[in-house]
Amino acid sequence: MPKPTRAIAPPAPPLIPARWHGGDQTPALSVIHSTVSRCAPGGARATARYFQTVDRPASAHYVRDPDELIQCVGDHTVAYHCGYNEDSLGWEMTDIPGPVPDDKPGTARWKALRRSWRWARPEQKRMLAGLAEDVARAHLAYGIPIRYLDVAGVRRWDARGRRPADGGITTHAVMSAAFKRSTHWDPGWWPRRQFIRLARKAATRIQHEVRP
Q1: What distance in Å separates the CA atoms of residue 34 and residue 146, rounded to the nearest whole number?
Q2: Domains and CATH numbers, the chain
Q3: CB–CB of 78/48 below 8 Å?
Q4: Section 121-125 average pLDDT
Q5: Pick from 92, 172, 173, 97: nearest CA to 134
Q6: Residue 97 has what pLDDT?
Q7: In what order do the strands lie in the sheet with 89-93?
Q8: Half-sphere exposure of 42 (CA within 13 A, CB side)
Q9: Crossing angle of helices 172-179/151-159, nearest 10°?
Q10: Angle 192-210/122-142 helices, nearest 10 degrees?
Q11: What is the pLDDT of residues 58-109, one digit of tens each?
């Protein structure tokens, strides 16, 4: 696994500031979300503009579409993205999640939503690869391991003081299940093993680029 290093700067994309945010934090975990909107160029800016006008406390640090990353909240400021927000970075994918919880496993609809409907599409693949590189850069900058954390993993991260060294990459669904402060289940099914591989590969390349 690539080793985190503070010699690498976090992402610095265009900023469209969100209306809602909280106090100070130390980035120590990445939480992956879906925007419940079409995966297409321009989607990141559209979601960022939504965060400027939404009436309820809702925001994320970053939004990614196939072509662009947009920042909405600074990394060291709490964003309102998963209910249990402190010391985590919220990453929104322009994506309509599926299957939904009521879809019966094994049905034709369930299989379509789980596989071909989303992640076989070129724009989804491009977005996933771009987000993997973005997350890799942030994790290298803040000393966060590039690994997936399940419910037990995020609870252990929390119990140990939410330290970057105990962190990793998880989803809104996992945070909802672990801390019961949200009922959201996004991103539904997503190729998390592929995502971790892409992020580790990107981290290795980034580290090689900065070595003298």
Answers
A1: 20
A2: 30-210 (3.40.80.10)
A3: no
A4: 95
A5: 92
A6: 87
A7: 69-71, 62-64, 89-93, 30-34, 169-171
A8: 0
A9: 60
A10: 50
A11: 999 999 999 999 999 999 999 999 999 999 999 999 998 876 666 777 776 6
